Amino acid sequence: MSAVCRSLNLLTIRTLKEATVLSPCGWSVSARSKFSKARIPKELFAERSKEHEKYGGDPEQPHKLHIVTRVRSVMRRPYWEKEIVKYFGLQKAHKPVIHKNTPSVNDQLKIIKHLVRIQPLKTPHGLPAEEDMADTYVNSKGELIVRRLLQPVDHKAVES
User: Fold this and answer.
1) CB 148 within 8 A of CB 128
2) Sign of CA dihedral 7, 10, 13, 19
3) Are 87 and 81 in contact (CB under 8 A)?
């Protein structure tokens, strides 16, 4: 560090005027604290239209709910990733949790995308009614299945 400062002092004003400098302190731009977040380029998160066909999604009508499952450990991960995992309720591994497909949730999931598996929640029979919510389950394919219970037979209808 001191060598850099000494070399800057040795430069004359004339050489500084002739040289094209991009930033006044170019060497300090890349230096960052070891506890700061990594600078991830936006190109990594750009939406790719080819992936919609790959995963069976429709970009015009996206799914409403995500099934988020933690598949990797948070040990030896930064504190902000541990906080996000705790916020989403993913403390236990391989336990699926359902979240809304909103931009704020998706921004948080991008940060921990290497720790989780995200699947769309498919509803082949449509969204269940309020009274059917107790009889629903999510199968291994990510489909919300409504278990229709048989209603007791009315005895008056049987007698006639």
Assistant:
1) no
2) negative
3) no
Contact 89, 95 (CB under 8 A): no
Tokens 């999604």 belong to residue: 57
For residue 82, what are its two tokens? 């541990």
Query: Are the beta carbons of 94 and 70 closer than 8 angstroms?
Result: yes
Question: What pLDDT digit, counting tens, does each position of 127-137 carry?
Answer: 888 888 888 88
- What is the token pair recorded at 92? 């236990």
Sole residue written with tokens 């060497």: 27
Q: Are 84 and 55 in contact (CB under 8 A)?
A: no
How many residues make up the chain in this entry? 160
Instruction: Count CB atoms within 10 A of the CB of residue 144.
Output: 19
Write the pLDDT tens digit of every residue in 66-108: 999 999 999 999 999 999 999 999 999 999 999 999 999 999 9
